[in-house]
Amino acid sequence: MNDQDLARWFQIKFGFIPNDLSKYRMAITTRQYEVLEFFGDSILGFVVADYLVRNFSIDQPGWFTEVKSKLVEDRNLSKIAQSINLASIITIPSTSRREQITDRVLADVLEAIIGAIYLDQGLDKCKQIIFRLWSLDRIRNSSLIRNHVHPDISNNLNIENPISTLQELLAQYGISPPTYTDIDRAGRDHAPIFTIRATCTFRGRYLTADGDGNSKREAKKKAAEKLLLLVLRE
Questions:
Q1: What residue numbers bound the domain in which 126 lies?
Q2: In whole angstroms, how far apart are CA 36 and each of 15, 112, 166?
Q3: I want to staple 194 with a disulfide (CB 3.0 to 4.6 A). Which of 70, 88, 219, 234 is the partner?
Q4: pTM
């Protein structure tokens, strides 16, 4: 892959044009990415740990260790790498033609790219990309957390009634309840799909989230759940 195509790939996948392609060349080349992989692993661990500590009020250090390890394990990294077709840009030197692009290689190269992004674009851009690729703003109710933490903690994270929970949380800050607006109705008469938008102002920011469902009640609940997660991130 030539420089122009490689720069274009990063622009499409990550939304920026690299300043120094040499760092990314090293990151995607087997037998050359080890240092950047080590660096990227540390950055990824820091960003994930920082997010968990800031967003989950749980007095059990072991929980953070377990969830963080699941988020940054090779299996999860490999899935993320596959989702962006990372294998298409990995370079295997002519002296290593027998080497295969395994799940471990995909995970290592992804971490190396994170290291390269930090050196080339800075921490803020690096955090943005990690948040997007790892969907950190959606992990609160994800199976990744539900399946790999202590049941008591998992139950605490399960928002059974997000509508009332959101309203109660806003009330604690002296904020009016969220507004729910019917946005759309699609599908056939016997199987409608409703879309409802939930909005509120929190800490000076206007927050909005849409929810879909086969009934208005279900759509409202999903919208409230999404908006609640946005509020918890602030």
A1: 3-157
A2: 21, 4, 42
A3: 219
A4: 0.61
